[in-house]
Design a protein that fits this description.
Oligomer: single chain
Distance between the termini: 70 Å
Strand order of the largest sheet: 1-5-2-4-3-6
Radius of gyration: 25 Å
CATH architecture of the largest domain: 3-Layer(aba) Sandwich
Largest sheet: 6 strands, mixed, barrel
Shape: globular
Strand content: 15-25%
Mean pLDDT: 92
């Protein structure tokens, strides 16, 4: 909201009934909330109830917020109101500030969202209005949830294009001096598949421009931004990101720290709460960020398997065609790499644990996870082949040479230093090792349930938390041999994860030894 919006005084003449703000320290993530006593004279006069949407004005600034009410004589005194931490930041207010309130103005996109719930297509203009209202904070979490849910299974191709373009247009769009600006993305759903830091280091070491913006976890124990934050600062604004890329050819930053497709970060927050990541919205999310970051060529890794986000080859191919088709219409050259998503990658699942796997690969540690190294080299090779100087099929060989001769590790260190300094990933205060109850051969690692137990242990909110795997598919184990170790920062979270393990069996499924 801006100062041009009507203030409470505009709506009510002399504005003689302001409320005094108190800082309550309540974190609602990105949702703007105002807390008011249910017997507040303003609530009574205006008819405000819990979940009402109101325009809060102070010192020439206005924001839209959702009303939450406290009981009379409780947290807030008569004439007082509180704001969520997100609302404090947007209103630029301070303790004791006087605020006035009025009913929120009508939101044009509400009708479009209700229409989508009933199966109506959203045209280009309607989609643009929805995304503009998302970015401006005009939609409550209820309407955001309704929009995401309604679109989850019913976006057609043209709607995905419209959503992607609207998400690009409502934020900044970076431009670079290079004609070839590469990027890569994995659609997710595969535990431990943390190839991005390795790919960026290899590509930048080969002279390609790769301004990598990454998201935090939506449904997994760690996103690339979560992992990188244990190694170096990732909360860089556009100017800082530009300095890093101009100096080192690449960066690894959190996409939410700049206004690159800002609608994406708002929608991801709600998708995370819904545990929902539909194909159409995934395409719009990925491609809007890539286009906004100034990329010209993008490699998309689509793992598929029965326990991955993308379950089948057919679905992976469908998603690949959608990504390539939408990419063409928003001026991106998109290539798709279909990969095995049947088993977790690496050994650590959680920000710090995955960071250690990445470091081991970059440092050519002989004990580094071989599957992560080989997968990263395949993806890096495909990215390198965007360059006209590297022939088709020759990318993986170049990537391997750059990794093995130490150039990738040197470049990664330089990028981290440019972003604020390379640091040691934290270690968890508590661990608990789960052992095999009998001898056998590892037949299956349940990607989803291993991911869930890592999250129950505290990942990604606690960077050191997660799960460390000690066996792989095909390994022979003896009774009492360690299968995996839980890492946690708090007894409660470790206990929560252990309670889950008591209810769930065969996260590591054992069978008889082959003759």
């Amino acid at each position: 909201m801006t100062a041009q919006e009507p203030s409470c005084c505009d709506a009510h003449g002399d504005g003689q009934h302001p409320l005094t703000l108190r800082r309550l320290g309540i974190d609602t993530h990105q949702e703007a909330v105002i807390y008011m006593p249910s017997d507040c004279h303003v609530c009574r006069a205006e008819g405000f109830q819990a979940r009402s949407r109101v325009l809060v004005s102070a010192n020439g600034h206005s924001i839209l917020a959702t009303v939450n009410q406290t009981t009379p004589g409780g947290l807030l005194a008569p004439g007082e109101a509180g704001l969520s931490e997100a609302a404090w930041g947007r209103l630029d207010a301070s303790e004791g500030t006087q605020v006035t309130l009025r009913h929120a103005p009508a939101v044009e996109s509400h009708g479009a969202i209700r229409g989508k719930i009933h199966g109506k297509r959203l045209g280009r203009e309607a989609m643009r209005h929805v995304v503009e209202d998302v970015v401006a904070g005009r939609l409550s979490d209820i309407y955001l949830s309704a929009f995401i849910t309604a679109c989850a299974a019913t976006l057609d191709f043209d709607e995905v294009v419209s959503l992607t373009q609207a998400m690009i247009d409502t934020g900044q769009r970076l431009e670079w001096q290079s004609d070839l600006v590469v990027d890569k993305h994995c659609v997710g759903g595969l535990l431990g598949n943390r190839t991005t830091p390795i790919v960026v280091a290899v590509a930048a070491a080969c002279g390609l421009t790769i301004p990598k913006t990454s998201s935090r976890a939506i449904t997994s124990p760690a996103g690339t931004a979560d992992v990188m934050e244990t190694l170096a600062p990732v909360d860089l604004d556009e100017a800082a990101m530009r300095r890093v890329v101009e100096r080192e050819r690449g960066c690894l930053v959190w996409g939410g720290s700049s206004r690159l497709s800002p609608a994406d970060d708002i929608l991801i927050r709600v998708e995370r709460a819904l545990d929902l990541d539909s194909l159409g919205q995934l395409v719009a999310s990925v491609l809007s960020k890539k286009a906004a970051a100034g990329s010209t060529h993008v490699l998309i890794d689509i793992p598929h398997g029965p326990k991955a986000k993308v379950r089948s080859v057919d679905t992976a191919q469908q998603l690949g065609r959608l990504l390539e088709g939408v990419g063409r219409l928003v001026d991106l050259d998109v290539r798709v790499l279909l990969t095995d998503g049947s088993r977790p990658i690496g050994r650590g699942f959680g920000p710090a644990l995955e960071a250690r796997d990445v470091l081991a690969v970059l440092q050519n540690d002989p004990n580094a996870p071989a599957d992560l190294r080989e997968r990263a080299l395949d993806v890096a090779g495909a990215v390198l082949e965007f360059s006209p100087n590297i022939s088709a099929g020759g990318g993986p060989r170049v990537a391997r040479r750059v990794l093995e001769d130490g150039a990738a590790w040197s470049k990664f260190q330089a990028i981290c230093e440019a972003q604020g300094g390379l640091r040691e990933p934290p270690r968890a205060a508590l661990t608990h090792t789960v052992e095999a109850t009998r001898a056998g051969q590892v037949l299956e690692l349940d990607n989803r349930r291993l991911s869930r137990v890592a999250k129950f242990a505290g990942a990604p909110a606690d960077p050191a938390a997660g799960l460390e795997l000690h066996v792989g598919i095909g390994d022979s184990v003896e009774a009492g041999q360690p299968l995996f170790t839980l890492h946690a920062q708090a007894k409660g979270e470790l206990g929560y994860a252990l309670d889950y393990l008591e209810r769930e069996a065969d996260l590591v499924r054992l069978g008889k030894e082959e003759a």
